[in-house]
Design goal:
With about 150 residues, the chain is of the alpha+beta class. It has 3 helices and 4 strands.
């Protein structure tokens, strides 16, 4: 598995989102309805998603426009990749962005719920981020051991 994570804190372009890319498609999620909330792109070579569309898990595709190239007779040719069809996950978030997280925290403090993101997960995430900083400073690759994630 390969991962790429980027955080931009000085530019509002494209809002915020998480992008999960696999060999059969891409899922883009965001708590913001304005920023790709639940957008899926099926890779053109992936099996059809008709079953998932029929079950209502994803919407029917919004077909991407394919521009036809004129035949120039050129020996060397460069063409634009065809964009995959766009689907949506039919889920609408009605609460303000951070309300579910705050509600869960208050419910956990009151003994009515377990934390959806317990401190151990936060610690593991922080370890990963801090290791990236170490690797940048040392201009080296990252390596992890199980002990790195234990408090």
């Amino acid at each position: 598995m390969k991962a790429y994570y980027q955080t931009q804190t000085t530019n509002g372009s494209q809002g915020y989102f998480e992008n999960f890319m696999g060999d059969q498609g891409t899922l883009v999620v965001s708590e913001s309805e304005l920023n790709y909330a639940g957008t899926l792109y099926r890779d053109p070579n992936a099996p059809a998603w008709d079953t998932w569309i029929q079950k209502g898990y994803v919407t029917a595709p919004r077909l991407q426009e394919v521009r036809q190239q004129a035949d120039t007779g050129a020996v060397a040719d460069v063409r634009e990749s065809v964009s995959p069809d766009e689907h949506k996950v039919p889920v609408v978030l009605r609460d303000p962005y951070h309300q579910p997280h705050l509600q869960n925290f208050f419910d956990a403090v009151r003994g009515r719920a377990a934390l959806t993101c317990p401190p151990e997960v936060g610690y593991e995430t922080a370890v990963t981020v801090l290791k990236v900083n170490e690797a940048i400073d040392a201009t080296s690759r990252l390596s992890f051991s199980a002990g790195d994630f234990e408090a």
